[in-house]
Design goal:
Helix 11 (about 215-225) runs antiparallel to helix 15. The strands form three sheets. Strands 1-2 form a two-stranded antiparallel ribbon. By secondary structure, the chain is mainly α. It contains 18 helices and six strands. About 70% of the residues lie in helices and about 5% in strands. The longest helix is centred in the last third of the chain and has 36 residues, at about 405-440. It has two domains: about 1-75, no CATH class; about 195-440, no CATH class.
Length: about 450
């Protein structure tokens, strides 16, 4: 009887995966709804992937992106646009001819700044931004496919959900330079014995001077080495941290004087379109300026109820945390978690487009190893609602958004899960500090 039920469950899951493949051709909403059910059944029945299911799940992101990119090509949608902007900026040092951003042929003129760090100002490349973007896109895809087929069966499902998540899709479609940072972090994460050597710190320093927030990796590593009493490594990392901070402050003081951005903090641009952005500061700005739900913007009763829900959930999480999560990470996972944490928190506290959200997976991968299936389901399914515009089938920038009841519910789920996951990050960090202080003192 047990064998019969197991066989029936396996067939049902294969059918669900097949339907998820087919839903790619219907709409984004259908696809993400079926992906949600795929996640639910995965944790409900504790699936172990056999060869047939393994191939179905590994091929899902390849199938998905081949269709979506072909679809974008025929619709003449924006594609790889952020990388085109960046490489046009590099080109403008020697050639100020405007670039037609593909595939929509939007005119992209030379600008004083794009909001990047000082490293972007030092790079001058005479190139065709579209061809350069295609070459980089192919290299990134080869690396991602390599990871897709080299990852162990026990981790493949979570990795596939990452690749299919709206945040990663946004990142790959735009080819924002955050994808270089994510790929480098994958390399760090997969190290047999996690550590940052001098070459790693040099690469992180360059990425910091390009995008700022990777400096959080150095901060986290300094903290790890300090609390584990490896003072030599802590001092070496600090020697990289100090000049990075000095160079960034000097650069953004100059950028602020340009007055290039309507919304910025210290010269760093901010964004807060609620269906495509995330972050504490983005939510604060959107609360006052955008009608997020069926209630009017700035509704005190609505936000008070939401904050009360978060407070109750936080208290319940503290009381019940041991029931859902094993606060006993092994040393390697603690080191990885605390190293990545400051970078992720820097991102989550600010106002960013949704293509930065996949960097949260560096912490989510670790959490899922120690959470029970209910917590794991909650965390993994939550990545489907940040950012939200793909779930609403708003593929293209020409489409308009209206604050309907459906949007209100999804927005609440998105914000609620986002803040609760960040609270869990802090609980793990506190647990790490407690364990190290107990050992040291």
């Amino acid at each position: 009887m047990k064998l019969f039920l197991e066989k029936k469950t396996n067939l049902s899951y294969i059918l669900l995966l097949t339907i998820t493949h087919a839903s790619i051709y219907i709409s984004n909403t259908f696809f993400y709804v079926f992906l949600f059910f795929t996640i639910f059944f995965f944790y409900k029945f504790n699936f172990i992937f056999t060869n047939k299911k393994d191939w179905l799940i590994r091929l899902l992101p390849i199938h998905f992106y081949i269709y979506k990119f072909i679809d974008s090509y025929f619709k003449k949608d924006l594609l790889l646009w952020d990388n085109q902007y960046l490489f046009n900026y590099f080109k403008c040092k020697t050639d100020t001819t405007p670039h037609l951003t593909q595939l929509t042929e939007i005119v992209n003129r030379c600008q004083k700044t794009l909001g990047f760090g000082p490293a972007a100002d030092l790079i001058s490349i005479k190139n065709d931004p579209w061809i350069s973007s295609l070459i980089i896109f192919v290299i990134i895809c080869i690396y991602i496919i390599y990871l897709l087929f080299s990852i162990d069966k026990k981790d493949i499902f979570v990795f596939v959900v990452l690749l299919l998540s709206p945040g990663f899709r946004f990142l790959l479609n735009s080819l924002n330079s955050d994808i270089f940072i994510l790929c480098f972090c994958f390399y760090l994460y997969r190290k047999q014995k996690f550590s940052l050597n001098i070459v790693d710190l040099i690469v992180i320093s360059f990425l910091t001077q390009l995008k700022i927030y990777p400096i959080g990796l150095i901060i986290g590593y300094i903290g790890v080495k300090f609390f584990t009493r490896n003072y030599r490594q802590a001092v070496m990392s600090t020697l990289f941290f100090i000049p990075n901070v000095f160079l960034l402050i000097n650069h953004y003081i100059k950028i602020r004087n340009y007055g290039s951005f309507v919304d910025e903090v210290g010269g760093v641009p901010t964004v807060y379109a609620p269906i495509s952005t995330f972050g504490l500061y983005a939510d604060y700005k959107a609360y006052w300026d955008v009608q997020l739900t069926i209630f009017e913007r700035g509704n005190i009763i609505f936000v008070s109820c939401f904050i009360l829900l978060l407070v109750i959930s936080v208290i319940a999480t503290i009381k019940l945390k041991d029931k859902y999560f094993t606060f006993n990470l092994d040393n390697e996972d603690y080191i990885k978690f605390i190293t990545f944490l400051p970078m992720v928190l820097l991102i989550n506290l600010y106002a960013n487009f949704g293509y930065k959200y996949p960097l949260n997976f560096l912490l989510i991968f670790i959490i899922l190893k120690y959470g029970n299936k209910n917590l794991s389901f909650f965390i993994l399914s939550s990545v489907l609602v940040t950012p939200m515009f793909y779930l609403f089938n708003l593929d293209y920038f020409s489409q308009k958004f209206f604050a309907t009841s459906w949007f209100s519910v999804v927005w609440l789920l998105s914000r609620y899960s986002f803040y609760m996951i960040n609270f869990l990050y802090l609980l793990i960090a506190i647990d790490f500090l407690k364990s190290k202080l107990k050992v040291n003192y």
